[in-house]
Structures are given as structure tokens and as C-alpha cells.
Fold this protein.
Amino acid sequence: MRYAYLVVEGPHDVEFVGRLLKPHRFKRENNESRLDPYWRPLVPTRFPYGGDLSRRVPVPTFFVSDTVSVAVHASGGDSEIANRVEETLQAALVAPPDAVGVLLDADRALPPVERFGEVRHALQARVNLVVPEQPGQVSAASPRCGIFVLPDNVNPGTLESLLLECADIPYPDLLSDVRSLVSRVRAGAYSLTPDDLKDFNKPAGAHKAMVACMAGILRPGKAIQVSIQDNRWLEGAALDLPRIAALREFLRVLLMLP
């Protein structure tokens, strides 16, 4: 069995990766008794974690195939990515993982290449990883390592940019109506205050609002990650879209999949 450790920014990214692994016959492992002993040091044994009753227990989500076991860890934000990798590599794992990967968004003012540079520098300063000089590449060192900057290592955007691109295949009419709704918000409809629109007006706010609207219809009352997991965002032709295919190829090389 090979072991791979992926760090992403949030729970939506975790489910997104899970859907991309699904065609390779990966299954989610939620049962502690069936969890590969290799990963046990990453499962917290005390609650509340860090003494904070409101804090989500930082346990990875595990996906397993016949040959590869993957732990996908939500860091809670890009500033925590290097910390999470360092904590894991210093945990009492019986051996380092065979691969370490990072997925992050390019949703700030910095170009994707600079976002990549920030995280690459932090990883090299904190842990002894051979990180390639360009985003989307995978080093052949041990452990194999790579960083992918969503949506495509070149353009600004986020996970939601990719989800909306995918949604245009299974849900074109719903997406069209949601775009219309967001356009009306941008045009000043509904008498919303600046405070109401504080998050909407952030660089990725409109895209996040569109994904939330669609997920709210597809899985009312449930979290967006449930919709990513359950609905048809990443099925069929959506998997072959160029930017999705590039991310799938990055994961295939990193995890040494067929």
C-alpha cells in the first residue's frame, strides 16, 4: 500500500478531491476500526481539541483504493497549510508518506505564481520537502511532492470557478438562472446594504454565492460539500474539461495512479 497526504484549504476542497479520486475506485473510509493503522497518529484522541469547544476536530478525510491510501486534510486557510504539513510529518507515522500534495486557491490579489511561491517557501522553510519550481508539477523525490493552484495554476480563481464550469454541463438552465440572480444583486436589486454584501463583494464572493445557490436547491438545508459529494457536478463530460483534466493529471502523477 502507498500512502499520500494532501492538504487543501477547506471542506469543499476535500469533497472535490474525493470526487476526482472516485473514477480511480477510491472509497471513503469513515470507520475508525477499518482505518489503516498507518494513519492512526493523525486521529485526535482528545476532545475538545486545543481546549476549544467550538473548534472542529482536525481529522483528515480518508480515501482508499486497492493500492493507495490518501488522507485529505482541510487546513482551515492558506496560512495554515505549512503548519498542517509540518505537524503531520512530525507525527508518529511509522514512515513518511510516499507523496505530499497541496491544493490552494488563487483568490487574492497576488497572481497564482506568487501564491505558489509563498506556500512553496513556507514548506521549504518548515519541512524537508523537494517542492518543484512550478505549480502543477510533481517532484520525483521521496516523498513525491507538488502544489496545484486552483483553478489552473495560471489564472486567478477558486474551487468555485471550477465547480461552475462543471455545472454548465449537467445543470445549464439552473446555472443560467443563478447567474441572472447574481447579476441582479450586482446591479443593486433587493435593497441590500454594504454590510449585507460584505462577503459577496469579495473577489470570489459572487462565484461562492452561485455555488451556494445551486447547492441549496440540489441539497436543501445541507452543506455545500454534501452537494459536491452527492450531485452531478463532477460526472461524465465534466471530468474531461481541460482545467479539470489538468488537476486530475496532477493527482494521477502525484499518487502514481494508472
Summary: The CA atoms of residues 171 and 240 lie 16 Å apart. The chain has eight helices and seven strands.
